[in-house]
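Notes continue from the previous slide.

Worked example: a multi-chain complex. Inputs as given:
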Amino acid sequence: MSALLEVSGISVSFDGFRAINNLSFSIGPAELRAVIGPNGAGKTTFMDIVTGKTKPDSGTVTFGEKALSLLKLTEAQIAQAGVGRKFQRPTVFEDQTVQDNLILALKARRNPVAVLFWRPRQADLTRVEELAAQVGLAGALPRKAGELSHGQKQWLEIAMLLAQEPRLLLVDEPAAGMTLAEREQTTALLVDLARTRAVVVVEHDMEFVRRLNCKVTVLHEGSVLAEGTLAHVTKDQQVIDVYLGR
Amino acid sequence: MKQSFIARNPSILIFLGALAIFTLAVTLLSSAYGVDFLSTSFIKTLGKTLCLCLVAIAMDLIWGYAGILSLGHMAFFALGGYMVGMWLMYARTETIVLASLQGSVLPATPEEVVEGVTTQIFGVVGASDLPPIWSFAHSLPIQLLLVVVVPGLLALAFGWLAFRSRVTGVYLSILTQAMTLALALYLFQNDSGLRGNNGLSGLQNIPGLDDVGQDALSVWFFWASAAALGGGYVIAAFLVSGKFGSVLRAIRDDEQRVRFLGYSVESYKLFIFTLTAIIAAIAGALYYPQAGIINPAELAPIASIYLAVWVAIGGRGRLYGAVIGAAFVSLVSSWFTGGRAPDIPLGFYTIQWVDWWLVLLGLSFVLVTLYAPRGFGGLFDRFARRVPPDRHGADLGPDTGSLQQAEADK
């Protein structure tokens, strides 16, 4: 199975601090992967590099069958190429309705002129309703996103990600601030999504990672410390020393 | 959920209706077409006010919707005025020169005419050659095209440089203000080719319409300004009503998130910046023939700051708010500064509004910012029950067992 995302040998420093140090990572087109590591291990910087927010000092990042280099693209182009990102804090557009939020995310042409003359077709509205129903927001379409609860905002953001139809999903601490029931729902959704696309979950919570039941990559000081099943990495002495032992 | 454009934007019909009634009323009260109740100069003031409302709509698009506080849109407004002013001044001087050469034995050659016009226009700044930027001043269609092209290209070039470098927030405001100031200082120079601080004058006389009196002309320009304002309002409402408006407001609220959704934030900013610059220029091209004179002082950064104050007082993010703000504040301002407001003698000191008006304006700006951040437009919202969402409540989460409000607030 060839890799969908291939990150090799990237390094980046901020004011002399090496946030990422010769990190390599790859994920297949339909795979679920958890990335864990202590604070400052470079998890967020890694996501920033893949989504184009931060440019690495060295290394390559390629995506898709044609091995498209993501380093030359802007954030918007990377997103259009099929990389979706979910932030830790739910970031939805609070001043706009749930429906507007979903329409914004819906896969469509993104240039200003096309967007200016874009009008929703019946199929688009149906898709928006489906997405809302999928995350339990079917009745909330005309409500402003700012009125939703924290958990509902998380779900709205997940629905927006689905609307983008990304091939690679980067999810930052999805379970943060969720109740047990919501966590189970999230786990099921992520596992389900990974059947058709690549999903990278950055997570602190070991219990949640255990539930995901997938390959785990442990980051430490900007590089990969260990990789394998959760059972495998938790036996690794280095991992125990830097992360689990604490 | 499909509705027609008008049905989704009821404010368009209300606005156009109000504008039509106002236009009709002013026409019927004018001296040229009605009962001679309003003076010609007051009709000009009203026509100019409509132009200011149009530029306020442009400001609301760029600031209220896209979140870019541009302090340069009055520069585009004035540039539009200069472009149309060049033709007005050239063509009028040409008729005067032709009339004076009528008496000579030989018919005047084109060179002689151009020389005569140049002496007439540029004698005041001591130039004897027609500056190259006046090359098209003889042609009305070309100058009208330049009204759109020159400010449009300036906005495009400036915006491209600024947005590409991801300059945002207050830094962008400072940059736009620097652009305005630089342009004003350049135009103040005599060799800028636009008559330095003398500016262009006599713009109220429209060449070829000498036998039409100012009383009728003022109404014609009032109609044109009203039509431009109506058209501008509909275009702006179209821009902000659909997905495009949704993207603009999203950029205002969280531009990084918009990037991760796959929208090129820079192209959207450039698009709206250039478009609003063009709207401002068209407003300026209608304003200055009514004002009669334009000089570089019109480009001073303070003009653009006033524009921001109008929109803030009227209510950002509501097109009608911008119109109300601009109309109200500029009319009140011309009442106070026109010497018509009665002085208030306090015994030891007399409050003269010409001086104290700015204090009053500044005070009301502060008060609006503090106590009514939605401005006058917010009053209409209360009417239409468009109150902002209450983000506090006990019922959180889609399912049983969700976070409680106390937990979510942590």
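Summary box: Chain A touches chain B through 52 residues (CB under 8 Å). Chain A has a mean pLDDT of 87.
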